[in-house]
Design brief:
Elements: H1 7-10, E1 18-22, E2 25-26, H2 30-38, E3 45-52, E4 55-62
Antiparallel strand pairs: 1-2, 1-3, 3-4
Length: 70
C-alpha cells in the first residue's frame, strides 16, 4: 500500500512495485530496505530502482522521517 501524501506517493511508487536497490545498494527484503533507508539522512534524495511489470525503473525519492505515522 502507498499512502496518499507520502514521499512514496510523490515519487509515483505503486503498490505492486518491488524496490530492488536504493542508491545502487541491493535490497533483498524488508530488513535490508529498513537498514539501508536508516543510513540515509531525512530530506536526502535517493534513487530507488524498482521492478514494475518486469521492467526496471529508477525513481528519485526524498527520504522522510521513519517510521511514517499511520
Amino acid at each position: 500500500q502507498v499512502k496518499e501524501g507520502t514521499v512514496a506517493a510523490a515519487a509515483e511508487i505503486e503498490p505492486e512495485d518491488n524496490i530492488v536497490e536504493i542508491d545502487g545498494e541491493e535490497i533483498t527484503g524488508y530488513e535490508s530496505f529498513e537498514k539501508t533507508l536508516n543510513k540515509k539522512d531525512v530530506n536526502q534524495n535517493v534513487i530507488l530502482t524498482i521492478e514494475r511489470n518486469s521492467e526496471r525503473l529508477e525513481m528519485n525519492c526524498l527520504v522522510d522521517s521513519y517510521p511514517v505515522a499511520y
